[in-house]
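User: tokens in, sequence out, please.
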């Protein structure tokens, strides 16, 4: 794939890795993941997106106490062409309501943005490239 036009902006929403309880049943099948490996994967994909010409920003949230206002504030500060909601929010059964709330916040405050979803901390660029 070729690099996108300069200026395409991406907001990546995910759980703050340091608050994740890896002993939770949600993570039982995901062996080898740690806060450090998730943070490294996110950082590497952020760098990859930037090297592809995207203006990429991370928005790491908690389990819901402040997640909605944090995302709402970020979306009000800048217009984004694409919003990624990470697998840690989207695919964990215990985070279903948080995922639903965040989709609706994005829909209300960035209706022009394409929504995309990664499957792990290291395939965010592929998810973005599918849409912009």
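Assistant: Sequence out:
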């Amino acid at each position: 794939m070729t690099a996108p036009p300069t200026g395409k902006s991406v907001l990546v929403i995910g759980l703050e890795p340091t608050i994740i309880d890896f002993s939770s049943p949600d993570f039982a099948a995901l062996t080898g993941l740690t806060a450090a490996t998730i943070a490294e994967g996110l950082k590497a994909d952020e760098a990859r997106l930037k090297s592809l010409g995207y203006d990429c920003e991370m928005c790491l949230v908690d389990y819901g106490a402040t997640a909605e206002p944090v995302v709402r504030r970020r979306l009000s500060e800048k217009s984004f062409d694409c919003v990624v909601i990470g697998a840690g929010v989207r695919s964990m059964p215990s985070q279903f309501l948080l995922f639903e709330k965040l989709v609706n916040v994005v829909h209300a405050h960035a209706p022009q943005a394409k929504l995309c979803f990664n499957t792990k901390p290291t395939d965010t660029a592929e998810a973005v490239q599918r849409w912009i």
